[in-house]
Specification:
Elements (H helix, E strand, L loop, with lengths): L1 H26 L1 H4 L1 H19 L2 H8 L1
């Protein structure tokens, strides 16, 4: 009984573990590359919004 239980737990645990490990490494490096690209886009967006952002807060602060 105990041996069968351990075997059953090992089988289901080993199967999901294998696909997860394979999927994680591929997904991990992919997001890492886009991150720098997204950061650059985020930096450009605020730069363009910077001139537009200050007037809005000032008007809101005055109002």
């Amino acid at each position: 009984m105990a041996q069968r239980t351990s075997e059953k737990e090992t089988d289901p645990g080993a199967q999901p573990a294998a696909p997860k490990k394979r999927g994680r490494p591929r997904k991990t490096p992919a997001p890492v590359e886009p991150q720098p690209e997204q950061d650059s886009l985020l930096v450009e967006q605020p730069a363009a919004e910077t001139p537009v952002a200050p007037p809005a807060p000032h008007a809101a602060a005055e109002g």
